[in-house]
Amino acid sequence: MSLIWIAVIVLGAVGLIAAVVLFVASKKFAVEEDPRIAQISEVLPQANCGGCGYPGCSGFAGACVKAADAGSIEGMLCPVGGQPVMEKVASILGMEAAAATPKVAVVRCNGTCENRPRVVEFDGVRSCRVALMTGTGETACAFGCLGCGDCVNACQFGAIKINPQTGMPEVDENLCTACGACAKACPRKIIELRPKGPKGRRMVVKCVNRDKGVVANKVCKASCIGCGKCVKACPFEAITLANNLAYIDPEKCRLCRKCEEACPKGAIHAVNFPPRKPKTEAETPAQENKN
Amino acid sequence: MKTFRIGGVHPAENKLSAACPIKKAALPKQAVFSLYQHIGAPAKPVVAKGDEVKVGTMLADADGFVSAPVFSSVSGKVAKIDAIVDASGYRRPAIFVDVEGDVWEDSIDRSETLVTLKDRPELTAQDIVAKVKAAGVVGMGGATFPCHVKLSPPPGSKAECVVINGVECEPYLTADHRLMLEKPDEILVGVALIMKAVQVSKAYIGIENNKPDAIKLMTEKAAAYPGIEIVPLQVKYPQGGEKQLVQAITGREVPAPPAIPIQVGAVVQNVGTAYAIYEAVMKNKPLLERVITVTGKSVKQPTNFLARIGTPMSQLIEECGGLPEDTGKVIGGGPMMGKALMNLDVPVCKGSSGLLIMNNKEARRGEIQPCIRCAKCVSACPMGLEPYLLATGSALKNWELVEENDITSCIECGSCQFTCPSNRPMLDNIRMGKSTVMAMIRARNAKK
Fold first, then answer.
1. Which residue pairs, CB below 8 angstroms and at least 24 apart, start in A179-184?
2. CATH of region A36-93
3. Domain end among B220, B247, B282
């Protein structure tokens, strides 16, 4: 009986002393943290994807508070949560959320098996970075998609997949959070984060080949040959031509689709537009919308 | 028998063309000269479209210290300065020359007579380095590092001996072997020139024991050249790696990168380079042809060619009896370190030591199995690294881990992958990791 009492008393005393020490320590060494950081962290999606450019969600929360103290949280964006989350963050900080344009990852290459013939077989590790070290990959295009799926592995949201028919990565717009992990993983810098556009509609040059037209034409049926017809066709000066490659500025583009008609190679894609009604017989049929 | 201390493998030798004398390859119809034939800055063209050139006319000049000029190996007219698709599929600038006749520059001595140092006592070290530089000689073993850079030791380092690589440890290749059998005196004079250029009195020529005829002949001939010693070596891959060779011959270990052999007092050159140096200095002949082995189990006639630089590889294959039907891969260089070619129209370059045509069976990779932790790769690594760790770390993009484990020391010899019973593609991942880590280190140094 007394043995049990001794045990109870000793353990109770140890527990009591420990509690006192811990209490004192927690008061004395308490780290002053801005309560807003914890509040913001709570509304963030906790995906810790790093898409915002900060190490995880708490890092982003800290940066938001710092930016708010400096005056403005403009430019801070959680790509996963998007506008609704940023509005919550702004209300915690007592500010107005800047209007952010939702973005989406866009694969700027249309070198499908059909458009771009495979000239050699790559039997190494299925990794774009490894393929890049051995040469131009399986096709003769020195700029296009290598098709080994580094972007697929980088995506934490399952939004990007290789289509086995075309051998090309395809982005699921509903799942894509525009965190930019795929764009970072792509060794050829083919994936670009572009504004989704009104109703998700946008114009994209699906090619990154900077070779001269003759060369680009030879390696891929769907390549941009830098002919400049789209530049002339564009009434809003939204298209620039550099290094034999056209680029559509999403800020200036007004979605008139004139460039799509002008492109002789079908390298300019209109995404998420409803199918065109044939107005006249002479008009070319609408491009199939591949996303 | 000497050899390097740790690691190494012994692949089947397959020296099919060892008995085949060096044969002059036919002149091509059009020769193509890449401006990227060496490590360093690409050469700058000095000719224009339509210019008449002779054999030995300079086409492009060196652009900077670590660079080398490119000379025409044919006579004719410059057709265009455009781009070629190189062995890895990328387009690189090149000069195209339409061949007409075979007219040589008058300054080149085309006679077969041997010129030794005794005939040219006035040559100084500076003269030799200047001539080597002007002739565009690069490392002929395949690394294509401009030769004059190696012959000018950086300040603070002193050369103590010259180590000549006559190892040819790659299976299949026999170019250096044949060169030693057919041009032993020229090589030895070349070695003497290297010794004079770096001001040392001792040179070793390492030859693997699977070439007894070359060892015998070179030893006999070397008696007439003071200070040159032939060192027979045990057959082991990668003995031709400069760090392995220096260790095998001198017993000294080259420290981890960025250290180079000169830090332990060794200047390493290949026998092919020694021959090119002889021709450049004594015969005034710029680097315009080289010995290249075209071989493979299914090739009708494996041959050692003396080919003009710029000759398309496809032409050499035709001369060997054409591309066999069961071809799986065509590899530029040897089977261990060579790279598969994307197309066969690539021209012979200064560093093309061989062309290996693998049949379907040889070319196929084995099925990748899980690592069974047998550590064969660790025993095989000649640099004392842990390949399984570096490969996994690279695949998982754990750059800190692979950097800590000295991935930059990897010489990419492929012994790990060769020895792996599970066919793990270790070298693929290690190469990727190494290049990433090297880029990170460069970026860090640039910031400082």
1. A179/A47, A179/A49, A179/A50, A179/A51, A179/A52, A179/A79, A179/A80, A180/A51, A180/A79, A180/A105, A181/A49, A181/A50, A181/A51, A181/A154, A181/A155, A181/A156, A182/A105, A182/A151, A182/A152, A182/A154, A182/A155, A183/A105, A184/A154
2. 1.10.15
3. B282
